[in-house]
Design a protein that fits this description.
Elements lengths: L5 E6 L2 E6 L10 H16 L5 E6 L4 E3 L12 H20 L5 E5 L2 E3 L1 H8 L2 E5 L3 E3 L13 H9 L1 H10 L2 E3 H7 L4 E3 L4 H13 L3 H13 L7 H12 L3 H11 L10
Parallel strand pairs: 2-3, 3-5, 4-6, 5-7, 6-8, 7-10
Antiparallel strand pairs: 1-2, 8-9
Helix pairs in contact: 1-2, 2-3, 3-4, 4-5, 8-9
């Protein structure tokens, strides 16, 4: 698929997806959301891709929010449909990918941008990053999972304050809150993400996918995460990666995982 709003690079088992709408500060319009779904789906199905990194083009923004002009005149039913479709197509979809996704947060990550970053498996920020959910200043609430994922990541009280004040926090505050894992300079943001991705890629992709499934289960209503962990743990014993990993360990050599 040819993308109008994305750049894709693949190297050394890492697929980097760059949202490329710099004049709009990489805001998420409908077309970009659809393209992101396709790009993530393609990378997840690619056996050569071990880790996905998503970032925004330019120095000003990761994603500065959703494209408000597309839904400013929506009614109630259209608003509900917008949130439901967006969550299914992109945000929930990314969270549940079996391939690890790292958000490289450069500059502004606001509204839908922060919601996209939070749907990734973890986040690394540049020291100029600013994060927030300003939706209540527009008379609406976060609709792409922000009211659910932000409390899970930083706690209910802090999430309530961020959402109700519509304020932004900087990268160091985000690090203190646990919203991001690392903060680095802007020029070192992608190199650091690639370094982490390389460490991840040396491990079993099958086991990593199972771990993602088990961890996510803990945050789903009506699902016992411990039961999912037991299932995924048992399933690992039937994989070629388990055979290779245990054989390599006993032979005191590095494992060469086939990813099956």
């Amino acid at each position: 698929m040819k993308y109008n709003n994305l750049r894709i690079e693949e190297e050394n088992g890492i697929t980097t997806i760059t949202i490329n709408r710099p004049k709009k500060l990489n805001a998420l319009n409908r077309e970009t959301i659809e393209e992101l779904h396709d790009a993530f789906d393609t990378a997840n199905k690619d056996e050569d891709t071990k880790v996905i990194i998503v970032n925004g083009s330019g120095e000003k923004a990761f994603v500065a929010g959703a494209d408000i002009s597309e839904f400013a005149d929506f009614d109630v039913s259209e608003g509900k449909k917008l949130a439901a479709q967006g969550q299914e197509l992109l945000f929930d979809f990314v969270e549940n990918l079996s391939t690890p996704v790292i958000a490289a947060v450069n500059g502004f990550a606001l509204g839908g941008g922060l919601e996209l970053a939070m749907s990734c498996h973890f986040r690394v920020a540049s020291d100029n990053a600013k994060m927030g959910l300003p939706e209540v200043s527009l008379g609406v609430i976060p609709g792409y999972g922000g009211t659910q994922r932000l409390p899970q990541l930083i706690g209910k009280g802090r999430a309530m304050e961020m959402i109700m004040t519509a304020g932004m926090i900087d990268a160091n505050q985000a690090l203190t809150y646990g919203l991001v894992n690392h903060v680095t300079t802007q020029d070192q943001l992608l190199p650091l993400c690639e370094k982490i991705a390389t460490k991840i890629s040396r491990n079993s992709s099958v086991a990593i996918g199972a771990a993602i499934s088990a961890i996510n289960a803990n945050f789903k209503d009506g699902v016992n995460g411990f039961d999912i962990e037991k299932q995924e743990f048992g399933n690992c014993f039937g994989t070629e990666d388990f055979e290779e990993g245990t054989t390599a360990f006993l032979a005191k050599r590095k494992a060469d995982f086939p990813g099956r």
